[in-house]
Amino acid sequence: MGDQELPGVLILGVGGVEGVLENHVGLLKKNFHLITMKEFLENKKELSEKIKSIFIFECRPTIDRGLLESLPNLKVIANSGVGVDHLDLKLISTFGVKVTNTPQAVSDSTADTGMALMLASARRLVEGCQIAVAPDTEHFAVDWLGVEVTGATLGIIGMGSIGYKVAKRAKAFDMKILYHNRNRRKEEEEQAVGAIYCKKMEDLLQQSDFVMLVVNLTPQTHKLIGKRELELMKPTATLINISRGAVVDQDALVEALQNKVIRAAALDVTYPEPLPRNHSLLKLKNIIITPHIGTATVQATYMMTEEAITNMLAVLNGLPIPSEVCLK
Amino acid sequence: MEEKELPYVLTDTIGGPHGVYLEHMEFMKKYFNLVAMKEFPENQKYLGEKIKAIYIWWQKPAVNRELLQSLPNLKIIANFGAGVDHLDLKLISSFGVKVTNTPLAVSNATADLGMALMLASSRRLVEGCQITVSPDTEQFAADWLGEDVTGATLGIIGMGRIGYKVAKRAKAFDMKILYHNRNRRKEEEEQAVGACFCEKMEDLLQQSDFVMLVVNLTPQTHKLIGKRELELMKPTATLINICRGPVIDQDALVEALQNKVIKAAALDVTYPEPLPRDHPLLKLKNIIITPHIGTATKQARWLMMKSIVENIFSALNGLPIPNEVFP
Lengths: 328, 327
What we know:
The structure holds two protein chains of two kinds. Chain A has two domains: 8-105 and 297-317, Rossmann fold, CATH 3.40.50.720; 106-289, Rossmann fold (3-Layer(aba) Sandwich), CATH 3.40.50.720. Chain A contains 14 helices and twelve strands. Chain A has helices at residues 2-5, 25-31, 37-42, 44-47, 65-69, 89-94, 103-122, 125-133, 161-171, 187-193, 201-207, 227-232, 250-258, 298-316, and strands at 8-11, 33-36, 51-56, 76-79, 98-100, 153-157, 176-180, 195-197, 210-213, 238-241, 264-267, 287-289. In chain A, helix 6 links the parallel strand 4 and strand 5. In chain A, helix 7 packs across helix 9 (161-171). Chain A is globular. Chain B folds into two domains: 8-105 and 297-325, NAD(P)-binding Rossmann-like Domain (Rossmann fold, 3-Layer(aba) Sandwich); 107-289, 3-Layer(aba) Sandwich (Rossmann fold). Chain B is built from 13 helices and 13 strands. Chain B has helices at residues 2-5, 22-29, 44-50, 65-69, 89-94, 103-122, 125-133, 161-171, 187-193, 201-207, 227-232, 250-258, 298-316, and strands at 8-11, 33-36, 51-56, 76-79, 98-100, 153-157, 176-180, 195-197, 210-213, 238-241, 264-267, 287-289, 324-325. Chain B has a seven-stranded parallel beta sheet, with helices on both faces. Chain B has a six-stranded mixed beta sheet with strand order 2-1-3-4-5-13. The longest helix of chain B has 20 residues, at 103-122. Chain B is globular. At the A-B interface, helix 7, helix 8, helix 9 and helix 14 of A face helix 6, helix 7, helix 8 and helix 13 of B. Chain A: Keywords: Oxidoreductase. Chain A: It comes from Crocodylus porosus. Chain A: Residues 22-325 form the D-isomer specific 2-hydroxyacid dehydrogenase catalytic domain. Chain A: Belongs to the D-isomer specific 2-hydroxyacid dehydrogenase family.
């Protein structure tokens, strides 16, 4: 069958709460012989040599030594999404397998999520919605206020593609934009969004009304924001995290929010996800948490699958790879 | 005494959850003596002649013929906020009294809220927050999706100061921007925000993914969006209202949302406010409603107060009045 001549791609499954989205299957089947984990486990003998690529969606399937050893012809693991902190890059590279991600597809939706969280937190939107529907609401109190986003200072930690798009959006709100990054951006890039470089993260923390985390999770950025950093922030400031939960020391954050060391937090990411139901963060009044929806749009998820496919085909056809993740 | 020389200004309430902010009093005390309505009936004769201005706070006090007749030296009614639909401008003008509002002070905060509502609705933020804290949540579902704001089409109905600021913000999200307004804006203004004029509101309704209402409430804009307009909108579109509740036919909106004629709505304003607790709008899943918080920031309210002080001061001292509203 023509289908068998196409390279095999392994996925966890289709549909439901953890499988590849049903309306993306057609995209994959155009270029690949789609093999689910269930099919593979039932027929390892025949299928193991056919699998040339793995498409990771929502961090699944889990890549371990056992799986890698059972796929002798595996060439590429293509991740849907930009963060690859769930992958053991060293291990994978010892098998001579390439890893790719999807930085283009995620950037607009994630930047939009950062802006949505900042606005929702500043204007107390979620709380407001609760008041609007609460059975005991008789009047709207006029002394119920949020804080202004227009004209405030936004400090962006991590000025990659996503951070830069956040800056572009924030500029339209006349925000003063500070940024901290491993490397400074070119002057023209800074000027285009009116962003000022802070070589020392401390300077950014001390001056910002909103601090937004947009870094990769690496050993260097693990617990980047801890007790010390939270204490450097203004007591009127808001912390927004759209990168990875582990970039923030969660215990320190709980304490800082409880003691009003900072005003509020807005998180799209935590560790783990979801948090245990009795976790302190879920009980605080000055926090909003969304269920990791940074790229949860019809458009972004589709583009992520497309970008992953492009990457896989490039590897399998010996072409330049658009977004390979290399070991540092 | 110096204090007696400052003009008297009447307002509804001072302090508490519904009154003029005590934090604002120190600034205002330099310019006038603020008198609350409850003091007024007791000292009507004495105060009636001294009151030169009314500071309207949350549409109160209600300005009727009786009140106007009892204030022979009233020169100006200064409204807190941009909307003056609660004031009978003709009646007030017949007493030779000027009316002012605070359009500049409200514009940033209101535009910001329009963007906040559009993003929150499109990305299902409120629903998402509920999932995160719900006792039944075990896993985050991969097939739970919202829609992108970036690259979508925003149709702005009412391109005054606030509408224009919304356009400026939306442009940074690479949105395609259409607008409908009584008057077309200058070409440079359109180009600066990439906005395309729709002479016919129908064209805007048919092409937009998000329709945002940013008009004044007048007899012409009352029920501007009704059954017909909702049916012209895309079934995938979202209606956002940051101006006044009566601009929308609320019954038609309930029906449209129930029958998925449009995808969703996000309202900062309704009529009345708050809605009765058994109102159908409060039960729908595809709507978010905020409690009229368009200007609910410390900064905006401070600027609004200062604008009122400036308006009153100018009117009482024969200076050009910054924000006069004409019938």
